[in-house]
Amino acid sequence: METAGASPVAKAAMLRGEPINESSRESEIYDSLPHEGSFRLLRLLHGSEEDPIQCELFLERLGRHPRYEAISYVWGDPNVCEKIHINGHPLQITKNLEWALRRVRDSSENKILWCDAIRIDQSNVKERGHQVANMGKIYKIAQRVLISFGDDSEDTVRGAAEAIDSLHQHVNELLERYGEWFALPHISDADMAALDHLNWKALSQLTLQEWFRRAWVWQEVGLARQATIFYGNTEVDWGSLMTVFKWLFHRGRALTTYKYQLSFDRTFDLWVSYDLDGRGLRDSDGRLWGSRKFIQCLQISRELKSSDARDRVYAFLNHPLLDFSIDPDYARTAPTVYIDLVAAWINQKFDLDILSLLEHSTRPEYLEEDRFPSWCPRWDVAPSYKVQILHAGFEASDGRHPELTVVNGTQLIVRGVLLDHVQTGRPQLDDLTNFFTYGDMDRIETTKGKEGYSVSDLYHDVLKQVQSKPIPYSNEVADVKRALVFTLIGDWIFRHTVSSLVLEPGDTEFDAICDSFDAYIAGSYRNDINSSNPESTSVRPEVFLGNAALKCLNRRFFITDSGYFGLGPWILEEGDVCCVIFGAKVPFILRPLGDSKYLMIGECYLHMMHGEAITLMREGKVNEETFTLI
User: Is pTM beyond 0.85 here?
Assistant: First the structure.
């Protein structure tokens, strides 16, 4: 085959037997992709540290399983660019990418790389969508993923790398001694003292790098066979870092939560979700801890950065937990992409858990032009809740199958029961907000009763109210307190807050939470939060506060007309209705608009989460209804 006079791209393609229409596009960098499995690889030509970056693009096919490494990086400021040469033609790329190419370039051998910004024609909307659909395969078959953090001007990474090496060695020694992950003990005070010399500040700074906050990187590293972090002149093995995070996540919480404030939970959660069998922690019965659903991973994308709102969905379409396909289409608007995903999820899976991801920071607006229906989660808006009420332990609709219809992508028609109306909502609980923000009992002791509205104020208000009006639970103080505590923690105890509890014989973890609540209300403080094994651990007030602060953040305690206690969205109002939608695991707050039309305000905890609503319906005490959500 004659290749004289053809561009380097065309020559490489023709030598592989792939037809390229050269026509009048000699000076263009991007030739069209001839096959569905075609993609472009970059040959990074060798050079010394100061040499200009010279590259060649060529075509490959996924089915050939070519050998290459893939770059994962933060695009950075698009206005700060450097010039490189591709096939002899100049191309402007971001400074961050130029640094990454220069950092991984070899002085004597060429490197074959995949890099999205260069190898995808970003101006071609159709190609962009097609290549995004293939990116999971591209990163999965790469020999290694090269993670670029950029230059380390303060040389902080060396301390972090030394800490990672020491902790990795410590974990391996523990595994040799105890045999398996689940057998490892929780970290002791002696262990914490022995590890105190490590540069925890540098490790914390490493976890705060911008790369960890980018939406696309979790697919890139989650599907990787092997990965290495390049930070300044230092290299850190990704697998070693994840081993350290796994140990800190499951056995070293006293270090990360209370002492050094390391921010890595999201990192470890997302990484594990891409390969649960090989990365997660299993108990002695082989059960996997922390298993997630795809929509929970998608919810985390709200905390991540993306220059294109559509990529908060598209960046996760190759996730192994997504069991149906969605084609990326950059001709569609972000609202349409989000609505299509929710409608597809509901129609194909008949699973309403996705509605629990809904949050409204202001009054929800139904669809007008590019606006969203009230029932569609906004993944382009940062979450206000740290923890959803939804979890596997609830079954509010008692296993009833969903009865629903999505109409024109704007209306969701569902069947369920209307339980009650919101009578009143209480103000924000300032002491819980302070504890969430500062984790400091001394600060709460100083301000409690002097500022705002506190848990103690709420408790005494509720006791006064139940004296004048019966409630469904009982008017006994002990029963009222129990229902209140259940509601404030959302009937969910966070494992790391009770892992060190020393329980009295016959006591449950919830009994310990109630004891902790009593200690807090009585003003019995003792700031021993930094100890992993303090005395009388079952009555530490922070055990209650830690659980309630996570659940009550940006939520409002409310009481219904019939006296039920609830915890719902901050924007709930008097007259909103509490309902259980068939197929949903948790109740929802809706706002009536008339003619059986409602705005969906969001999920709620009502102290009847295990099918009680369906029992009331069968007894004729509440009615089955149709709700049109707009």
Answer: no
